[in-house]
Write a structure and sequence with these properties.
Helices cover 25% and strands 32% of the residues. It has 8 helices and 19 strands. It is globular.
């Protein structure tokens, strides 16, 4: 039995305590495709070519044909998820890659239907899930603003009233009459968010897509979402930026393996998410056709515990089809809130990487990190020289830095208050 998504009319706005989103026992199931063995002979390739239309039609039929005997080929992106959201509430949805966050938002945005369960939504929904979602590449930015507004149910008069504000917020007025297909990903995000946030939706749904924008624009977006929430409208926000979730959301749910494992105050939800991070670090070592293996981080004192003042060495191996042009390797240290504490870059150190033959072995040796005692995550990136990313391994390694013997404080402040860098200084109090 298939699931159901119902949008309830909103002639009379609900009260502040009225539920505007109700998710009941929602599950989403997909079939995992299995490739046929390749036929290397000429006759085999000709045979495959002739049979391809029939095989493709058969696969299409099988996509909706789920049987118990096919359990090994079925993946549940969501399983029995339940929650409610009140009008004016700002809900954060956090979890690791593959937890089911984007699938849930696509169901709430009516892009796809649930396999099981029921969703009821009261009010007009505006969503920003992917770069350029809902934009027609051949239309100009101006034309897409009006098209998106119309899809959201706005009249031309209503769009006209908000148009100048949308353009000013996006900061792309110079390119407004240029076809969207010529926009960069950042420009698309700017315009898409401006449209989604300014056309007065009752419910605003935002995915991690904001990560594409620069820091200044991200701050503008967070401010706008706060403004939307303070006006009594509802916001659902998905992000790996824990600091942004903490500042924006009063309540959060945590997804893991398609299931809801937490629903409550954001502070407690972040703790739950960080506790589960230790189980996931290092598991997602395949990305975009590249594999990260043999990643190690150790102290040169050969201690199993890493202290503030220890010297260190990082080693790793990345396998994949690298382009022939010059590349940059980044080893980033991030706090539990996603703040970049340290950036170790081959480019900054004058090291060239080129002519790779499917393997990049690296070793980074350095003096004391001088990072405050805390939990950090390593992020490994390979970029082209122009900054274009080739592959990124998030949360590739979890590092716990302990206080050194000369680190005197007995009680450390909380994660967000202790800062990043550790520096030995002397204090003189009430003395000239």
């Amino acid at each position: 039995m298939g699931g159901n998504v119902e949008t309830v009319g909103n002639d009379n706005l609900p009260s502040m305590e009225e539920v505007v989103i109700s998710v009941k026992e929602v599950s989403k199931r997909y079939r995992i495709g299995v490739a046929d063995e390749r036929k290397d002979t000429l006759a085999g390739q000709i045979g495959q070519l002739l049979l391809s239309p029939f095989k493709n039609f058969k696969r299409l039929i099988q996509l909706k044909n789920f049987k118990d005997t096919d359990a090994s080929n079925v993946s549940w992106a969501l399983k029995n998820v339940n929650f409610e959201v009140n009008r004016g509430e700002v809900l954060g949805i956090i979890g690791h890659n593959g937890a089911g966050k984007s699938t849930l938002l696509k169901i709430l945005s009516r892009i796809t239907e649930p396999t099981e369960g029921e969703i009821q939504i009261k009010g007009r929904v505006s969503s920003l899930l992917e770069v350029g979602t809902g934009f027609h590449p051949e239309l100009s930015g101006r034309e897409n603003v009006y098209m998106n507004g119309t899809i959201l149910g706005m009249t031309k008069k209503e769009i006209d009233a908000k148009f100048d504000e949308i353009v000013e917020f996006s900061g792309i007025g110079k390119y407004l009459d240029t076809p969207v297909k010529f926009y960069s990903s950042g420009m698309k995000v700017r315009l898409a968010f401006s449209v989604a946030a300014h056309l007065e939706p009752e419910i605003l749904i935002i995915d991690e897509v904001l990560a594409v924008g620069d820091a200044e624009f991200q701050n503008k977006c967070l401010g706008k979402m706060n403004e939307v929430a303070n006006s009594g409208r509802t916001v659902l926000f998905v992000s790996h930026n824990i600091a942004a979730v903490k500042s924006l959301c009063s309540r959060s749910i945590v997804l893991k393996g398609g299931m809801k494992i937490f629903d409550g105050l954001t502070k407690d939800g972040i703790d739950n998410y960080l506790d589960s991070s230790a189980e996931n670090v290092g598991n997602e070592n395949v990305n975009n056709g590249f594999r990260l293996s043999r990643l190690t981080f150790r102290s040169l004192t050969n201690s199993e515990i890493f202290y503030v003042n220890d010297n260190f060495v990082i080693t790793g191996n990345i396998e994949g089809d690298f382009p022939s042009d010059n590349l940059t390797l980044l080893v980033l240290f991030k706090t539990v809130f996603g703040v970049r504490a340290l950036n170790l870059s081959t480019r900054l150190h004058g090291v060239e990487i080129k002519g790779l033959d499917k393997v990049l072995n690296f070793k980074v040796t350095g003096q004391t990190l001088n990072l405050m005692p805390s939990v950090y995550y390593l992020e490994i990136k390979v970029l082209r020289m122009n900054g274009e990313p080739i592959v990124s391994f998030d949360n590739a390694f979890r590092l716990n830095i302990e206080p050194s013997s000369d680190f005197l404080p007995i009680l450390l402040p909380s994660y967000e208050d202790r800062g990043v860098l550790y520096k030995r200084v002397s204090f003189l109090i009430n003395q000239d």
